[in-house]
Amino acid sequence: MVLFTVKTSIMLLLLAANNYFVQVLETFHVSFLVFFMLHVELNRKIELNDYVSIVGETAVEEVKALAERLKGKSVTHVNSTAFGGGVAEVLHSMIPLMRDAGLEVHWEVIHGDLPFFNTTKKIHNALQGANLLLTKEEEYTYLEYNRMNSESAIIDTDIVMVHDNQPAAMIQFHPNKMNKWIWRCHIDLSTPSLAVWNFLEQYINRYDAAIFTAKEYVIPSLTVPMLTIRPPSINPLCDKNRELNDNEVLSILDRYDVKPDQPIITQVGRFDPWKDPLGTIDVYRLVKKEIPNVQLLLIAGMAADDPEGWLYFEKTARHACEDSDVYLLTDLKDVKDLEVNAFQRASQVVLQMSTREGFGLTVTEALWKGVPVVARHVGGIPLQIQDGTTGFMVETVEQAADRTVYLLKHPELAQQMGKKGKEFVRENFLIIRHLRDYFTLFTELLKC
Fold first, then answer.
1. HSE (CB half, 13 Å, CA atoms) of 253?
2. Phi and psi at residue 115, to the nearest 5°
3. Three-state SS letters, 266-297
4. For a tag on the chain, would you pick the N or C end, based on fewer CB atoms within 10 A?
5. Which residues, 6 or more positions from 136, have their beta carbon under 8 angstroms from its beta carbon?
6. 369-372-377-378 Cα dihedral, nearest 10 degrees
7. What is the DSSP secondary structure assignment for residue 96, as one 8-state letter?
8. Helix/strand/coil (H, E, C) string of 184-243?
9. Has residue 241 been placed in a domain?
10. One domain for residues 153 and 250
């Protein structure tokens, strides 16, 4: 069913903002530094040795050897939210592992008001190809909040890694820096609005290194001394990806009235036009003509740095039209990592109908659970799916529906594709490889 009716969705969204701050306080120790930057201190402890049984001893020992060269070095990660979205999700696992390896690691979250995050969302959309321009007022808002946050952040560490556009200009306010700064771009920069990129590029060019997910995202005019191509990763031992038994999965399905004896197709991703949840519903409707009892799960976390998400949630609810087999599942109803894990494992097919996608970690998450993925051929998705082997790449809603029906009608083939997908993820997209990539870059920058 659609868990939130159109009539009630606005009320739930208004209540959500307060619930988020409660969630943050329960999950992390969060404190204000001066009056702006948020410092996030994670409670969890993860050890490198926990991953030996998954990736092998050699892979773990490679990371330890690099870490030995970095022993005592310090790192600060700076991004725009402590929860919701792929960047925060990666940092939840990356930071404890870096600490276990012997580094001193801090996590700073940029603070801003609604005009600031409206501006950074506009920058995000423009960088992904929307034909948008920044006003002088928006440029001022962006720079002023970067300035104020830079004054209160812990950024005197050996390495400062800044994620995406929101805090990218903080480097402007440290002209005499002696440490090394890395800009990590997580989005699809293949066709940016050049006017907005030109505004941002003057700050990016001050960095010592930049990391992109795919070579197609590198803008030729960049003059950053060191450019690297590195995809992100998932943590196979976190609640979102760890193994679950059948009883755990069924219990979660029952809690949300999802019927385990009927086919399930799922998309995980923000309520955002780039993720195209409306197109996903259209795929489901075509599939339903062939398989009438199919169910669609649309799952999302409502990130604090995405003011558009609240509006697009309601737009998606309207498009679903109160269909009892469409489920809108968010953290408004306490859908967290464990629940997402169960829903993905219960699915026969996972969709990713994004029209732009920097990488799309949800594709790798599904493949790790042995579920084939049908997705648009955009951004970083082709890095993850071996077309016809671990899933299918498509261009249109109609093609996605056709491939989904095919997989639902051929469960043995779907299972074989899922198994191949899991091994592909094991070889390429687990966090130990990601950690090795970062440590390699750190040693090169610090010459240690």
1. 24
2. -60, -35
3. EEECCCCHHHCHHHHHHHHHHHHHHCCCCEEE
4. C
5. none
6. -20
7. H
8. ECCCCCCCCCHHHHHHHHHHHCCCCEEEECCHHHCCCCCCCCEEEECCCCECCCCCCCCC
9. no
10. no
For 128-183, the DSSP string reads TT------HHHHHHHHHHHHHHHTTS---SSEEEEESSTTGGGGGG-TT--SEEEE
Classify the C-alpha dihedral 37-42-48-53 as positive or negative: negative
Tokens, residue 58:
């050699």
- Whether residue 132 contacts residue 122, with contact meaning beta carbons closer than 8 Å, is answered with yes
Using DSSP's 3-state secondary structure scheme, residue 256 falls into coil
User: What are the CA-CA distances from residue 43 to residues 83, 86, 105, 185 (Å)?
Assistant: 14, 19, 13, 27
Domain containing 221 equals 33-233+431-446
CATH code at 165?
3.40.50.2000
Burial (CB count <10 Å: 0-12, 13-18, 19+), residue 227: middle
Residues 6 or more apart whose CB falls under 8 angstroms from that of 161 comprise 75, 76, 77, 78, 181, 182, 184
pLDDT in tens, the chain (448 residues): 444 333 333 334 433 433 443 344 344 444 434 446 788 988 888 999 999 999 999 999 999 999 999 999 999 999 998 887 789 999 999 999 999 999 999 999 999 999 999 999 999 999 999 999 999 999 999 999 999 999 888 889 999 999 999 999 999 998 888 999 999 999 999 999 999 999 999 999 999 999 999 999 999 999 999 999 999 999 999 999 999 999 999 999 999 999 999 999 999 998 889 999 999 999 999 999 999 999 999 998 766 556 677 788 888 889 998 899 999 998 888 999 999 999 999 999 999 999 999 999 999 999 999 999 999 999 999 999 999 999 999 999 999 999 999 999 999 999 999 999 999 999 999 999 999 999 999 999 999 8
Distance CA 216, CA 386 (A): 19
Tell whether 334 and 369 lie within a shared domain. yes
**Tokens describing residue 80:** 């725009």
Which parts of 26-123 are beta strand (E)?
28-32, 38-42, 74-79, 104-109
Comparing CA positions, the residue from 79, 97, 115, 112 lying closest to residue 42 is 97
